Amino acid sequence: MTSSALARLAFWAKGMVSINDARMEWPGFSYTDAEWARMRTLSEPIGVGTYQLFTIVNAVIFIIIAAIGIFGAFLPLATLLFPVPADTSALKFSSLLAACAFLIIGLGLPISMRLSAMLVGGKTMRAALVSAPGDEALASKVSWQINRIMMILCGLLVPGILLFIAYDIEAGPIITALKWLAIALMAVSTVTGIRRQRKS
């Protein structure tokens, strides 16, 4: 396994270990005890500041990639395929939107993580990371988990759009309610994690 790939896996491990230490779970991303132990080992050379810098750089790079995908792929394709917006069916438009979203996220996220790991992961950190048997399998598992979540989300996008259009559903109140529900669930999860940590 290359040092660059190992660095990417280490940064991913740092984030997952932080979630696990807070006694929270990320649906769709489960690991065995051996994999958790390995991720903890990989995350040790990465300090909090380094990881925060990685997340910021990764977010900036991904936003740039997403903008390129939208203005360089989605909009030109939409203009070419649907020259008359009024005659465009919801199914065709939502399918194109979902496909572009999957490609932008599916390709953009690995690229942004690769570049971020290269920019943030210094020689000292890379020198502290030593490859071990099973790292490639773990990296492949992480990649599959990310792609699986993207396929599920993008797959739900098409029928979701069609249902909203078919039943003329006003999305604003629903999105607002879901946003506050997500905030409440995160708050409850965080408080629960803190209480569990204090008890332990």
Brief rundown of the structure:
With 200 residues, the chain is an all-alpha fold. The chain contains 7 helices and no strands.
Write structural notes for this entry.
The model has no long low-confidence stretch (mean pLDDT 82). Helix content is 81%, strand content 0%. With 200 residues, it is an all-alpha fold. The protein has helices at residues 3-21, 33-43, 48-81, 90-120, 123-128, 135-166, 171-199. The longest helix is centred in the N-terminal third of the chain and has 34 residues, at 48-81. The radius of gyration is 20 Å and the shape is globular. The two termini are 37 Å apart. It folds into 2 domains: 3-169, no CATH class; 171-200. The relative contact order is 0.14.
Quickly list its features:
about 200 residues, mainly alpha, 2 domains, about 0% strand
- For the secondary structure, the number of strands is 0
Largest sheet: none
**Poorly predicted segments:** none
The rounded distance between the terminal residues' Cα atoms is 37 Å
Number of helices: 7
Topology pattern, helix = H, strand = E: HHHHHHH
Number of domains: 2
Estimate the strand proportion. Answer: under 5%
**Quaternary structure state of the chains depicted:** single chain
Describe the global form. Answer: globular
Instruction: Give the integer mean of the pLDDT values.
Output: 82
Overall structural class, as computed from helix and strand content, comes to mainly alpha
Helix fraction, binned, reads over 70%
What is the CA-based Rg, rounded? 20 Å
